[in-house]
Amino acid sequence: MADAACRQELAPLTTPTQVKRYLPLLGQGARWRAFGPATLLIAPLLIFLLGFYVIPMTSMLAQSFSWWSGDAEADGRATLYQYAKTLNSSRAMGAIERTFRISLFSVVFCILLSYPIALWLVTARRFVRTLVLVITFVSLAASLIVRNYGWLIVLSNTGPVNGLLVALGIVEFPLQLTYNESAIIVALVHYGMPFMILPIYGSLLRIPPALWEASFSLGAGTARTLWCIVFPLSVPGIFGGTILVFAVSMSAFVTPLMLGSPSTAMASQVAAEQMLVQLNFAWGSAIIITLTVATVLLVWAYALLIRRMFRVNV
């Protein structure tokens, strides 16, 4: 009877604080019936994260504090030697700085290209919208290596881009469009656009049409309505897409390996070189941990900026 009464009283509660207040009053069976199904649903995800993210990252963090210089084994003492080596290495710091620069450019171009597409999808006919969304989802299943080979062909000296530039008389000789940072950014933007379009499209769908009509009825034009009404309300979708594209770009390995060169190596390539070629797991781990911490701090600062500027909960 007590369990039934508690469950009946717990049903209308919505906030975690309210649920925690009444949780001790429930019996063991009632607690399982209330929270057991949700626990079973998230258990596979938690196991996956524990096995493929938490444990490897913890191991890398421990290795990054070990001492190894190539001529001796680690002596078991915790030290900041690998992090000092990372900060003093022009190659490692150059790769980290290049990684951030390429990722930021990829995010900016993804926003500029994806927002108009998402805005157009909201007003497009149902058949066209469904077709574009299906193409967007299907593109996510395409092999990354196939995409990169496609860009190698398109941007090559004998590819269609150089052929068009020469035919139009813009350039006299083919340009070197591959094996540089620009080619990496182009491929990352192509890969990241679905991750930007879908969150923005979802946020635009949640904007009531009455807000558009009210803005127009008060004399605001299309441009002012988009800037003052639609854009601020779609900021959560932009934030979500930005984080996804930024994370994909920061962790890119295959794309810079195929479309870049040794002079455009990103942090993932430098860390992989140390781990797989030099077998210096300590320094490679320190590079990855440094990149991860810098990324988390940047995302945290970005979230604070968005909250303060647009007063949204992200």
Question: Can you put this structure into words, describing what you see?
Answer:
With 314 residues, the chain is an all-alpha fold. The protein folds into two domains: 1-64, no CATH class; 79-310, MetI-like (MetI-like fold), CATH 1.10.3720. Helices cover 76% and strands 0% of the residues. The protein is built from 15 helices and no strands. It has helices at 2-10, 16-22, 28-64, 81-88, 90-123, 126-140, 144-154, 160-167, 181-205, 209-217, 222-233, 235-250, 254-259, 267-277, 281-310. Helix 12 packs antiparallel against helix 15. The mean pLDDT is 87.
What does the main sheet amount to?
none
* Domain count: 2
Q: Can you give the helix content as a percent range?
A: over 70%
Question: What is the number of E strands?
Answer: 0
Annotated CATH topology of the largest domain? MetI-like fold
Q: How many DSSP H or I helices? A: 15
List the helices and strands in order: HHHHHHHHHHHHHHH
Overall mean pLDDT stands at 87
Strand content: under 5%
Low-confidence stretches: none
CATH architecture descriptor text of the largest domain: Orthogonal Bundle
Report, as a whole number of angstroms, the end-to-end distance: 42 Å
Overall spatial form: globular
CATH superfamily of the largest domain: MetI-like
Radius of gyration: 25 Å
Q: What is the CATH first-level class name of the largest domain?
A: Mainly Alpha
What structural class is derived from the secondary structure elements?
mainly alpha
